[in-house]
Amino acid sequence: MNVPDNLHYTKDHEWVSIEGDVATIGITDFAQGELGDIVYVEVETIDENIDAEEVFGTVEAVKTVSDLFMPLKGTVIEFNDALTDAPEVVNDDPYGEGWMIKVQLDDANDNTGLLDATAYKALIGA
Known about the structure:
The chain is of the alpha+beta class. It has a single domain (8-124), classed as CATH 2.40.50.100. Helices cover 18% and strands 35% of the residues. The protein has helices spanning 29-35, 82-85, 89-92, 117-124; strands at residues 8-9, 14-19, 22-27, 38-42, 49-50, 55-61, 65-69, 74-79, 101-105. The strands form two sheets. Strands 1-2-3-9-8-5 form a six-stranded antiparallel beta sheet. A hairpin with a 2-residue loop joins strand 2 and strand 3. The protein is globular and about 35 Å long. The N and C termini lie close together (7 Å).
């Protein structure tokens, strides 16, 4: 199970990379493995300010559809358009080319509720 040490994680299996006041968000290797083959990623919240824990989109796999939850309060400023034509990239490279959104954070210093790699590994039993 791949859990990079340089990222933050949520209990809902999203990962967060923060650079300045912009966060890049995707789903973890564990999440993509549990979902199976991803066939569609939908994010209709571009330019919307979303509170932490609110749904920002959905990911559809062959066997299920799952909501995607915002880890930190902010405005969705970008969707990874490559996922429109190739959603399977999330399965192949969840921490790289499979990122989902970029968010302009309301408060870049507020990362309460996020887990470090050690805590996330404990959560998933890795």
